[in-house]
Design a protein that fits this description.
This protein has 281 residues and is an alpha/beta fold. It has helices spanning 42-48, 76-90, 102-113, 136-152, 154-164, 184-210, 215-218, 237-249, 262-265, 267-280, and strands at 6-12, 15-23, 27-31, 53-57, 95-100, 118-124, 224-230, 254-256. The radius of gyration is 18 Å and the shape is globular. GO terms for molecular function: triacylglycerol lipase activity.
């Protein structure tokens, strides 16, 4: 079932935040990661809009959420402030929140600094490299990606990023099954994401890599933090960082359908698992 989409913008200090809202019920804020934007959550939103007012937005610097002036380096506190302002402007009380990847890092910042605005946070595969027993190898890998961008450009850096993230596994034997072309909305989303790659590599990758969630504050249990990991990402870097975060919070991780982007390929099943995580918490 599809639900009407309301779009809007929220003026915040230094930027204008674009958002999309669907459905009715308690507010559920979806935070995308890296260079992605609200468009990656379109199908997931439709599977949740019968129970929630689902709001997805473009994090500042991405797609339709432009800076007032020159681009600024990603600051987690600033992004946490943006999320808090969206909840205050669009919700009636604390919100359910789900963040994926770098969006999970933003969610963790939000939950630690604005606990009164969050009912439950599901942090899906947060790249909390600083929580690893020895983050030096992972940090060096991300610095190599950043250096590759500065030396060789966006395409070379993204190829290295995909390899290190374990997302470059196709084409190694056999032919892939032919697939139907993506719908126009998906093509528009892909185009916007491609346009965000340079900002992510120049200003976002390293701040997200170096961010350490305030585990001591989050362990207090208000709000409740649920760590999600992908059923298909066992052993990969964001699975391992998710497990480390859950261990430090003293909680059990929840396994979600699919991989790092399971919210797209398995939207219906992902929505069901997400709703269960919220209700059980």
């Amino acid at each position: 079932m599809t639900f009407p989409t309301k779009t809007g913008t929220l003026k915040v200090p230094g930027a204008k935040i674009y958002y999309e809202a669907r459905g009715s019920g308690p507010l559920l804020l979806l935070i995308s990661g890296g260079p992605t934007d609200a468009g990656v959550f379109t199908e997931l939103s439709h599977h949740l809009a019968d129970r929630y007012t689902v709001v997805a937005y473009d994090p500042r610097g991405n797609s339709r959420s432009a800076f007032d002036g020159e681009s600024q380096t990603l600051e987690l506190d600033v992004h946490g402030d943006d999320a808090a302002r969206l909840i205050e402007a669009l919700g009636d009380g604390p919100a359910f929140v789900m963040g994926n990847s770098g969006g999970a890092q933003i969610g963790l910042n939000l939950a630690a600094r604005y606990p009164e605005k969050v009912r439950t946070l599901v942090a899906h595969e947060p790249p909390c490299l600083m929580l690893l027993p020895d983050p030096s190898e992972a940090l060096a890998g991300n610095k190599e990606i950043h250096d590759t961008y500065r030396r060789d450009g966006v395409e070379a850096a993204m190829q290295k990023f995909m390899e290190m993230a374990g997302m470059d596994e196709h084409g190694e034997g056999g032919e892939e099954e032919p697939q139907a072309p993506p719908p126009p909305e998906a093509l528009e989303t892909f185009g916007r994401i491609n346009g965000n790659m340079e900002y992510f590599l120049a200003h976002g990758l390293m701040p997200l890599s170096l961010y350490r969630p305030d585990v001591e504050v989050l362990r207090a249990g208000k709000p409740r933090v649920v760590v999600g990991v992908g059923e298909e990402t066992v052993g990969e870097i964001t699975y391992r960082t998710g497990i480390e975060l859950a261990n430090k919070l003293g909680t059990e991780p929840v396994h979600f359908p699919g991989d790092h982007g399971g919210y797209g390929a398995h939207a219906a099943a992902f929505a069901k698992t997400l709703h269960t995580a919220f209700t059980q918490a």
